[in-house]
Write a structure and sequence with these properties.
The chain is α/β, with parallel strands linked by helices. 42% of the residues lie in helices and 13% in strands. It folds into three domains: 7-300, Thiamin diphosphate (ThDP)-binding fold, Pyr/PP domains (Rossmann fold), CATH 3.40.50; 336-519, Thiamin diphosphate (ThDP)-binding fold, Pyr/PP domains (Rossmann fold); 529-651, Rossmann fold, CATH 3.40.50.920.
């Protein structure tokens, strides 16, 4: 092993001690990983990572993903020392209210944090999406979009199934600019990885089609450099096994107790002595700052050179340069919405099919759209005739064949969205949103505009039976803050739903679409759809209201007509998006659903939650059944007669 120079040793030890001190002060956190991976992080950030701390949003920067997000103090220490806008005071306030140093890294909260991480497996999987985005954008715009995506991942990341799905796809796609430093310390919270994780992880990644570097000593800077150079040159994604020692330098080095929690004053003092660190907590010598801040000049120079290339592109190909800027700003082309199709009342069309027709019109005019499906393309209607598959041979392709990998698809789409220049959407059956839930939640936390297309939205799935008939899923998605859940009632509402999803830039959207054909309705009001809810069919002096979503709206209209024959006037309200409706002024909401108006809610799913809008609910608090969908609806009580009877019971007539 080569000798570490004194300056480098001090700089590496600064990372270790800052992590130790911040965790100690907070009495909470995970010091072990930062202490073990400090040398690898130091080499990466000072010698390989292309970044400019003065401009964290520089489009051509390399991306760094701390997938092992519990070791967040490693990232915060790196950001502070290299000159990002993260003063020492924020490190002192680690894990405290309103600090810039939360327990796990948060995108959009701390300058320089590229992705929210913490749930293991999500970071490395999102990084696959970042690498796909880089490959796609380079194919479109050339070298101005080039960058590497670097990851530090832990044993826990590689244990989680989502990382296996994403890594398998990364190998298939040959994402050579994706480089993962694997913190191969053989320790997890419970103890040695021998307790539960004994396969040869490196052979597994070789089988995925990755370039693998084995057994890099975690304290050997030259070996780390050599491995990174080798990885940069290989056309495959790379996994570098860094044999680190968790809690290096502390009395708990190599022990699972070093993983998390503050070590206590005695062990902290012993660590300082062992590392030869004479400074008080949160005191960093000037020579260490000088060592790290070498990257400022290097980063500014690299960005200036990139800016010259962008200027040259603007002069030689002004339209391409303008398009690049437009997409980075998430600005939709002027007049794009005129391409949205409209549908004629009286037709019958499944909303999944309507969604496909919307995409057929939008894909040619929105080059930022990048679609995909988890091996359900014909069912999800997510691929249009204008789209070709993204692949090693065709990096300009706009359609990703995710295979049966819903877990990975969600995280990868988030990585695509983080590029800002791509607007990803991906489809699967609604019942499989359970597999994607961690990624959906991460999209909502990060506020990225990922579009999740969920088809086969109810017991209308029919013969596939209860395993494939979602009951609780729409309501469970509505429970996620900052996620818009839109369940359109017909083809025209579906077109507006896509408009809402694409105009949204501060969070994800879930489109909930039917398998079965639905009538195209009279009276759909696009502005009402955009406001989340509206009166679809009004009558003078209504005695009650039926509020419904999706396929049940047409059923509500049938019940309205049946009640009218009995002289009972009922208003029908379509409520496709609760979140947009809740954002409206109270006067608007009361105009649609007055509290004084007896209201029946109608939705083929769990009734939990409807109490906020209705006095009575026709829903489903049991699993479905296998039969033709019309029979399932009838047997489970979703008939116009049942709905009319429930309205009368509500009115006491």
């Amino acid at each position: 092993m080569t000798q570490t120079p004194p300056t480098a040793k001090a700089s590496i030890d600064a990372l270790r001690i800052l992590a130790l001190d911040a965790v100690e002060q907070a009495r909470s956190g995970h010091p072990g990983m930062p202490m073990g991976m400090a040398p690898a992080a130091y080499v990466l950030w000072t010698e390989f990572l292309k970044h400019n701390p003065k401009d964290p949003q520089w489009p051509a920067r390399d991306r760094f993903v701390l997938s092992a997000g519990h070791g967040s103090m490693l990232l915060y220490a790196l950001l502070h020392l290299t000159g990002y806008d993260l003063p020492m005071e924020e490190l002192r306030r680690f894990r405290q209210w309103d600090s810039k140093t939360p327990g796990h890294p948060e995108y959009g909260h701390t300058p320089g944090v590229e992705v929210t991480t913490g749930p293991l497996g999500q970071g490395i999987s999102t990084a696959v999406g970042m690498a796909i985005a880089e490959r796609k954008l380079v194919a479109e715009f050339g070298e101005i979009a080039e960058h590497f995506t670097y990851v530090i991942a832990s044993d826990g990341d590689l244990m989680e199934g989502v990382s296996g799905e994403a890594s398998s796809l990364a190998g298939h796609l040959g994402l050579g600019r994706l480089i993962v430093l694997y913190d191969d310390n053989e320790i997890s919270i419970d103890g040695s990885t021998e307790l539960a994780f004994t396969e040869d992880r490196l052979k597994r990644y070789e089988a995925y089609g990755w370039h693998v570097v084995r057994g890099v000593h975690g304290e050997d800077l030259e070996a780390i450099r050599s491995a990174l150079r080798e990885a940069q040159a290989d056309p495959r994604p790379s996994l570098i096994s860094v044999r680190s020692i968790i809690g290096f330098g502390s009395p708990l080095a190599g022990h699972h107790k070093a993983h998390s929690d503050a070590m206590g004053p005695e062990k902290v003092a012993a660590t300082r002595q062992a590392l030869g660190w004479p400074y008080e907590p949160f005191v960093i010598p000037e020579e260490v700052y000088a060592d790290y801040r070498r990257v400022l000049e290097k980063g500014a120079k690299a960005q200036a050179e990139w800016a010259e290339k962008l200027t040259a592109l603007a002069e030689s190909q002004p339209e391409k340069a303008a398009e690049f800027r437009r997409r980075l700003n998430r600005q939709l082309p002027q007049g794009w919405e005129v391409h949205l199709p409209s549908f004629t009342a009286g037709e019958k069309l499944a909303t999944r099919a309507a969604s496909g027709k919307v995409l057929e019109k939008l894909v040619p005019v929105l080059p930022e759209l990048m679609g995909g499906s988890a091996d359900l393309t014909p069912s999800n209607n997510t691929r249009t005739p204008d789209m070709t598959d993204f692949s090693q041979a065709n990096p300009e392709g706009r359609y990703i064949r995710y295979g049966v990998r819903e877990h990975a698809m969600g995280a990868i789409m988030n990585g695509l969205a983080l590029s800002r220049a791509l607007r990803p959407y991906g489809g699967t059956f609604l019942v499989f949103s359970d597999y994607m839930r961690p990624a959906i939640r991460m999209a909502a936390i990060m506020g990225v505009p990922t579009v999740f297309v969920f088809t086969h939205d109810s017991i209308g799935v029919g013969e596939d039976g209860p395993t494939h008939q979602p009951i609780e899923h729409v309501m469970s998605l509505r429970a996620i803050p900052n996620l818009w859940v839109i369940r359109p009632a017909d083809a025209n509402e579906t077109a507006v739903a896509w408009k809402m999803a694409l105009e949204r830039t501060d969070g994800p959207t879930a489109l909930i679409l039917t398998r079965q054909a639905l009538p195209v309705l009279e009276g759909v009001r696009p502005q009402g759809v955009e406001r989340g809810g509206y009166i679809l069919a009004n009558v003078p002096e209504a005695r009650a209201a039926i509020v419904a979503t999706g396929s049940e709206v047409s059923l509500a209209l049938e019940a309205q007509r049946l009640l009218a024959e009995e002289g009972i006037a009922v208003r029908v309200v379509s409520l496709p998006c609760w979140e947009a409706f809740e954002a409206q002024p109270d006067t608007y909401r009361q105009g649609i659903l007055p509290r004084s108006l007896p209201t029946l809610a109608l939705e083929a799913g769990t009734t939990l939650g409807w109490e906020r809008y209705a006095h009575r609910v026709v829903g489903l608090n049991r699993f479905g059944a296998s039969a033709p969908f019309a029979d399932v609806y009838s047997k489970l009580g979703f008939t116009r007669e049942r709905v009319a009877a429930e309205v009368k019971a509500l009115l006491g007539v």
